[in-house]
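forwarding from the other thread:

> can someone predict this with pyridoxal-5'-phosphate?

sure thing
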Amino acid sequence: MSNATTLIHSIPVDPLTGSISVPIYQTSTFVQEAPGVNKGYDYARSGNPTRATLERIVAQLEGGATGAAFASGLAAIDAVVKLLKSGDEILAVDDIYGGAFRLFTHIYQKFGITINYADTTDAGNVRNAITPNTRLIWLETPTNPTLKVSDIAAIAAIAKQHNILLCVDNTFASPALQQPIKLGADIVVHSATKYLGGHSDLIAGLIVTATEELGAEIKFIQNASGGILSPHDSWLVIRGVETLHLRVQQHCRNAQSVAEYLLLHPAVDKVYYPGLATHHNHDIAARQQSGFGGIVTFTLKDDTEDAAKDFVCSTRLFKLAESLGGVKSLLCHPATMTHKSIPRERRHAAGVADSLVRLSVGLEDVQDLIDDIEQALENSKAEIQILEVEMA
Ligand SMILES: *Cc1c(COP(=O)(O)O)cnc(C)c1O
């Protein structure tokens, strides 16, 4: 059976009523027959049937053992860090999501956890950066926003040799394109706010573990710290996941066309999209992903914040907003929005230039999206300055 069929039929019909849609158990507690005698649930922080259904579906989607659903992607990331103790070190991809950087640096360093960074696109850099205290390797692939791709299988092999956990933030690819556990990762995290939810209507996070043992540790942390996903939002993510494969295929097609268009535009400098043969890590992406995703980023020849701000305020279909992965196209200016908590030098070193624009290519007709980008480049200062330079 194809992945799409398996997915759709992994969402159970309610055994009690035959309801084809998963019931929303909007309850805080479950009545017990006698102390400790219950129907599998006692208190809704510890477990809720709607959330449990989502957790099972996502574990299956990722090819893992156990799933756990959280109130946000960051709450999921937070739960993974809580597997560690004071004195432990995390080795993370340098082009890391801004919120994860803030959490690691401003919260966990206080508790004695050290964070080191490496350019993980070369697995050799990972091997060299490991110390005796490294307990967790943290990958995002592709990264946000420059879409660097790291070789999960190669890094998983290094992690296993050193008995270090490997966690992959799989938000950008989604399980429709990449399943890190099958490549050797121990843990996968998601901001389900993005492609899994898929409709820009909720905030949610997910963890999937390769083993039941690790899953039990995460479930313990989930219950102890309490950052759970509500039953209603669990239901919305299930509803989003039903169309994941269909949506992601179209995101990929649209993004490829947008990237190829940008590559030829005179006002555009660099284009980052793993589906372009010119992309640094195109080969790894082609090997480990079944598609290249819906995010395209680019810089302008006029590499200034002003030029980028001008552009992002000139599009009509692409709406200016943080977040990604929804039906409607969005765009943002990472330097002043998603990545403003990262110091400028670190940001530049990771390739997040002042004029970098991130597009979350949605499900509109692709020609309309290209027309929108074209009019915005023409109307914004970026293009005018280039023309002036060319005429002078
Ligand atoms: C958005 C995002 C997160 C954080 O998720 P929230 O749901 O916003 O808390 C983490 N990682 C990546 C790659 C993201 O894009």
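The longest helix spans residues 244-263. thats all i got for now
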